[in-house]
Write a structure and sequence with these properties.
The complex is a heterodimer. By secondary structure, chain A is mainly α. Chain A is 65% helix and 1% strand. Chain B is elongated. In chain B, the strands form two sheets. Chain B has a five-stranded mixed sheet, with no helix packed on it. Chain B has a five-stranded mixed sheet with strand order 4-10-9-6-7, covered by helices on one side. In chain B, helix 1 runs antiparallel to helix 2 and helix 2 runs antiparallel to helix 3. The chains are: A mainly alpha, B alpha+beta. The complex binds copper (II) ion. Copper (II) ion binds next to loops of chain B.
């Protein structure tokens, strides 16, 4: 193989160790480190906290061992040794000429990282989906199938797996792959940090899944203290995962913001910057502010569990309200961290499939910034019934209801863009319509929950479960699926099969709506969340919801098959199959390592549909040939 | 072709063009939404056994009715665009739509209407809170509620400290629950009365209600509290004043 020869040559010039590290060596090093850490701490420790300490230490050792073994510290180590990376080393790290193997290394190319996130995200969704099916299987009939212990463990695991999956589902794959090309950059601002944030998340996944064998997470994903203090070592897996996840997403957010702010092409002023870039940047800033609260909540929980502090233990002066505040300080903004990139993707996609400019570019930006700003002032609406600060219930009701104004503005942008357009109902656009249906239901039901007295009735019931599934799954995930179908040709070089995609679309939508409308039904009737068993009153609604969940699962499996099949055998994609105007469609497919041969200069925003092209009448409408990267439309771009 | 209608200069009255058609669809969906809101949620929710629950049920109805025209507008335009403005081919549409980059009147009107609706929600909510707290009397019957894994116990400090594993309340009397927990966080919920308050270890939280229906209702734990959370439910018996007095005496208390 040609690659081997190259690698051998480089080896002679030093840096041989770096060239041998990959995910496999990482796993080996991680397991060795974990075993050592476990053995040593097991030998040294005794007493009431020994189990939690041993397991936590083993997990931390796994992470460090894995990161060393995968080559995450190559750059700093080489720098410390006074042998900084050469250009050839950098190119090697970017994955030049390594074929598919580059996906299993500490590769710095943002396109590789985007694909890695896509696959990891799909695997995570798969695990979360299987857990969801187990939950619905248990709840199908009013007797307990698996027993409450198993059921409780699964509920928490499903929750946190899906939260992780939905947070990364857009900024991970599309923020990384698409965003740098969209702004005319050759890579992210910090390529090695980018790889570090992916592999940290990768290392966190086995830690989280190990909870299955350590007693699960029988607290729900919100992991309220002091229940979490009673929980088995699965809880340690949970909190270490959260800490790692916050590190990973923080590193990713810093990188995305810096890239969006500093690396835009010449001429790409803020009002010519695509709305998706805005969405990713604004969301990343929000994440940077709020995710540390999640980390703090779990660090304190970890201290309570392993060294006997009592931050959350009331009998020794702590307070469960402290946990709840820290948790929801992250917890509510977090839903916007999930939702905003999805809406941004939808606002990017709608003009392409309506063949019209975005309706109200500034309104879209005002809406996004308004949501981000308000979202950090609403957390206590999750705490109306906790008794923490009854006097603040009114003010938090106000801030929560105010957030519907900027949210409504984003909806206006979408339907205004559709207005009198040429509605081209390819698969990505179908998901935009599904978003509008589901998200309106999710949004309206959120208004009931913002109302203090109604929340006193509905809080903690399945109504809440149905509400956030309608916003996050029916809403945000539709944005992610629209984005997947839209950018699939650019990322994989092949078209996603639409016939199968449409079959999956309808089955998924029908299954989803049956499931969660039925859960609204039993929630209004008064069934609490997270119960393994329930009275006969709720039997009908639960059975319908379970049937819906299986239909939904069939739809999702068809989509998964479609993605895998199309990735391998799909029709070859041209560079711009949608006739879109953003920069990523003006470079060849597959995208060359450095994206642009000549960096583009931008002279207008990418929404000039139906507008006369000026100053040169360009005839290229459906994208550039491979020979003219970045220069598809001379009216907009000049070298 | 339908697609070209949009770009042709239109001299017809506005109600005969896109706007008029969408208004019709909007009115249809709104009526359906209002009927849905009036009939379905109140039938699904637990039968009210307190003034609080009446307020909650009314609010759900009012909010659904208020939300119907909003949903109808978004769905109406979406539906209309699918039927009338759809490009019926899988190829890129040969020509673009009109280059409308925004419309200040529409955007300002949208902001104005959504702000007005938000203001309405807020005022309604505050009025509702006011109405609920107005139902409480200054001298309520105090019931101490203790949650623990996985049961509730009750004490009546004003009635000679009667202790009970079941909750018995006199109808028509203002009750104040003082709630706490012996272990983890629980949540004290009476679905038919529309009240819920967390039971936290180390502190006492309060919620008031005035039962207005005789009968037996559910008491539930609404916060995941460990293994048998699903089974942490019991009953509340709402009885007449005299029956309550008799019950207190029978349990060794004296009516305070
Ligand atoms: Cu409980």
């Amino acid at each position: 193989m040609g690659e081997t020869a190259t690698v051998g040559d480089q080896h002679l010039r030093g840096g041989g160790v770096m060239r041998r590290l990959n995910a496999f060596t990482g796993v080996v090093a991680g397991i060795v480190a974990a075993a050592l850490g476990w053995g040593i701490s097991r030998a040294l420790m005794s007493g009431p906290y020994a189990d939690d300490r041993t397991i936590s230490i083993a997990m931390v050792c796994w992470i460090l061992g894995f990161l060393v073994g995968v080559g995450a510290f190559t750059g700093p180590v080489r720098w410390a040794l006074g042998r900084d990376l050469t250009h050839a080393d950098e190119q090697f790290m970017a994955g030049k000429d390594q074929g598919a193997f580059r996906f299993f290394r500490f590769t710095t190319d943002h396109k590789v990282i985007g694909v890695q996130y896509l696959v990891l995200g799909m695997v995570t969704f798969g695990v979360g989906g299987i857990l969801a099916l187990l939950i619905r299987t248990e709840a199908a009939r009013p007797t307990s199938t698996f027993g409450p212990a198993t059921y409780n463990a699964i509920v928490g695991l499903h929750g946190i797996v899906m939260v992780v999956a939905t947070i990364i589902m857009i900024v991970g794959p599309f923020g990384n792959f698409v965003m740098p090309i969209m702004i005319g950059a050759r890579d992210m601002a910090f390529p090695r940090l980018n790889a570090l944030s992916f592999w940290t998340l990768f290392a966190a996944v086995p830690v989280l899944l190990s909870a299955i064998f350590l007693g699960g997470i029988p607290t729900g994903w919100s992991a309220y203290a002091p229940l979490a203090d009673q929980a088995p070592p699965g809880m340690d897996a949970f909190l270490i995962t959260i800490i790692l996840f916050v590190v990973s997403s923080g590193a990713g957010a810093v990188n995305l913001v810096t890239t969006a702010v500093t690396m835009r092409a010449r001429g790409m002023t803020w009002n010519r910057t695509p709305i998706f870039v805005w969405g990713v940047a604004v969301t990343s800033i929000l994440g940077l502010f709020v995710m540390p609260a999640f980390m703090a909540s779990q660090v304190l929980e970890g201290l309570d569990r392993t060294i006997g502090t009592s931050f959350y233990i009331a009998a020794r002066g702590g307070s469960p309200w402290l946990y709840e505040n820290l948790f929801w300080l992250m917890g509510h903004p977090e839903v916007y961290v999930i939702l905003l990139p999805a809406v941004a993707a939808i606002m990017e996609i709608t003009p392409v499939f309506s063949r019209k400019p975005l309706f109200g570019f500034s309104a879209a930006i005002i809406g996004e910034i308004g949501i981000v700003t308000l979202s950090v002032f609403v957390w206590a609406h999750h705490m109306f019934t906790t008794g923490w600060a009854p006097a603040l219930n009114g003010p938090f009701m106000l801030t929560t209801e105010l957030i519907s104004i900027p949210t409504g503005l984003l909806i206006l942008v979408i339907i205004g863009t559709m207005w009198r357009g040429r509605i081209w109902t390819r698969l990505p656009m179908m998901f935009v319509y599904a978003f509008l249906w589901n998200f309106i239901i999710g949004g309206i039901t959120g208004i009931y929950l913002s109302d203090v007295p109604v929340d006193y009735q509905l809080h903690g019931s399945l109504f809440v479960t149905a509400h956030f599934h309608f916003t996050l799954m029916g809403g945000a995930m539709m944005g992610a699926l629209a984005a997947l179908c839209f950018w699939f040709p650019k990322m994989t070089g092949r078209m996603l099969d639409e016939r199968l995609g449409k079959v999956s679309f309808w089955i998924t939508q029908i299954g989803f709506n049956i499931t969660f409308l039925a859960i609204f039904y039993i929630g209004l009737q008064g069934e609490p969340r997270r119960v393994a068993d329930y009275p006969a009153t709720f039997a009908t609604g639960n059975l319908v919801a379970t049937i819906g969940a299986y239909i939904l699962a069939i739809g999702m499996l068809i989509l998964l098959y479609d993605v895998i099949w199309s990735w391998r055998h799909g029709e070859r994609a041209t560079s711009n199959p949608w006739g879109a105007k953003t920069l990523e469609w003006q470079v060849p497919t597959p995208v060359p390592l450095e994206n642009f041969e000549v960096l583009p200069v931008v002279t207008s925003d990418p929404y000039g549909y139906g507008e006369p092209v000026q100053p040169v009448a360009a005839s290229v409408a459906t994208g550039a040939g491979p020979g003219s990267p970045g220069l598809a439309d001379p009216g907009r771009l000049t070298p | 072709m339908r697609e070209t209608q949009g770009t042709a200069p239109e001299r017809r009255a506005w109600w005969r063009g896109h706007v008029g058609h969408i208004l019709l669809i909007w009115a249809g969906i709104t009526v359906a939404g209002v009927l849905f809101g009036l009939f379905l949620p109140p039938r699904l929710m637990p039968q009210p056994a307190s003034g609080t629950m009446h307020e909650v049920r009314l609010t759900v109805i009012v909010f659904t009715v208020a939300a119907a025209p909003v949903a109808a507008l978004v769905w109406g335009i979406a539906l209309y665009s699918l039927v009338v403005w759809r490009h019926r081919s899988s190829d890129v549409p040969p020509e673009d739509g009109p280059p409308i980059r925004g419309n200040t009147t529409v955007q300002v009107a949208w902001l104005f209407v959504s702000s007005f609706l938000t203001l309405f929600l807020l005022v309604w909510g505050l009025g509702e809170l006011q109405a609920i707290s107005a139902q409480a009397s200054p001298k309520p019957l105090v019931v101490d509620v203790v949650g623990q894994q996985w049961m509730w116990t009750y004490a009546y400090p004003q009635d000679g400290g009667v202790q009970s594993a079941t909750l018995v309340l006199p109808v028509g009397r203002s009750i104040l629950f003082r709630v706490t927990s012996k272990d983890v966080v629980h949540s004290f919920w009476i679905p038919n009365m529309g009240i819920k308050i967390d039971a936290n270890p180390g502190v006492t939280t309060e919620v008031g209600v005035t039962p207005d229906q005789l009968g037996v209702f559910n008491v539930r734990c609404a916060e995941l509290c460990g293994l048998y959370h699903a089974y942490m439910e019991s009953a509340v018996q709402v009885v007449s004043g005299s029956a309550f007095t008799a019950w207190v005496r029978a349990n060794g208390g004296r009516v305070g």
